[in-house]
Amino acid sequence: MTKPSPFSVRGRRALMAMRDDRDISIVRRQLSRLGMAVTEHDPSVAPPAAETIDVIVMDTDSIPIKSDAVVAWKIGVPIIALIGTETPSRLKWLLDLQPASFLIKPLRSAGLYTALVVAFDAAQRRIDEAAHLERLEDRVRSRRIVFAAVLQIMGGHGLSEPEAFTLIRQTAMRHRTTVEQLSAEIIASGGMPNRTPRTA
C-alpha cells in the first residue's frame, strides 16, 4: 500500500477546534485554498471518530487544563496546536497532548501548509515506528517459542542445543513451514509432531 505524501494535502479532512473568529477565518481560508475539507468543532466537546478526520487544528488556549481533556483528544489523529499562552502549566498540558506540529498566535496568513506537512510526516513516522515495534515484539515472542521448543527437543531426544535447533530447522524446511510455526506445534504436542510432507 502506497503511503500518502505529507506534501499532498488536497482532499484531506481538517477539523478546526477553535473559538476565536479571527483565527477561524484565517485557518478556514488557508485550508480551503489548499483544497481541504473543513469542519468546525466546539473545543469543549470530545472530537468525532478518528476515521472522519485527517488532521485537527486546535486552539489549545480554548481548552481548560484538564488531564481528561488530553485523553479525549488523543484519538490517533495528528494535531496542529495553536499556541498563545506560554505558561509552564499550559506547555506541560500541551506536551501531554503530543501535538504533531504547532503555530504561534497571533496567526498570520501563511505558515499553515508547513504545519500540515510537518504534522502529516510526524503522524506517518509514528505509524511506521509503531509497526516496527510490533514486528520486534513479534520476533521476541517467536524467539521465546523457538527456545522453549529447542529445550523440549533437547530433553526428548538427548540432543545439544545446536543439534536440537538444527533438527527443528531441517524438519520445518522438509515440511515447508517456518521454524516458529513448527516450534509452536512442538510445544502444543509435547514433542516433534507427526506431519505428512507436503508435495509441490
Summarize the structure.
With 200 residues, the protein is of the alpha/beta class. Helices cover 50% and strands 12% of the residues. Helix 4 packs across helix 6 (179-189) and helix 5 packs across helix 6 (179-189).
Provide an overview of this structure:
- It contains 6 helices and 5 strands.
- A 5-stranded parallel sheet has the order 2-1-3-4-5.
- The mean pLDDT is 90.
- It has helices spanning 21-33, 67-73, 88-97, 112-157, 161-174, 179-189; strands at 13-17, 37-41, 55-59, 79-83, 101-104.
- Helices cover 50% and strands 12% of the residues.
- With 200 residues, the chain is of the alpha/beta class.
- The chain is elongated and about 80 Å long.
- Strand 4, helix 3 and strand 5 form a beta-alpha-beta unit.
Core attributes:
200 residues, single chain, five-stranded parallel sheet, alpha/beta
SSE diagram, text form:
Layout: E1 13-17, H1 21-33, E2 37-41, E3 55-59, H2 67-73, E4 79-83, H3 88-97, E5 101-104, H4 112-157, H5 161-174, H6 179-189
Parallel strand pairs: 1-2, 1-3, 3-4, 4-5
Helix pairs in contact: 2-3, 4-5, 4-6, 5-6
Which percent range describes the beta-strand content? 5-15%
Biggest sheet architecture: 5 strands, parallel
C-alpha termini separation: 30 Å
SS-based class = alpha/beta
Oligomeric form:
single chain
Helical element count? 6
- Main-sheet strand order equals 2-1-3-4-5
Gyration radius over CA: 26 Å
Mean pLDDT: 90
Number of strands: 5
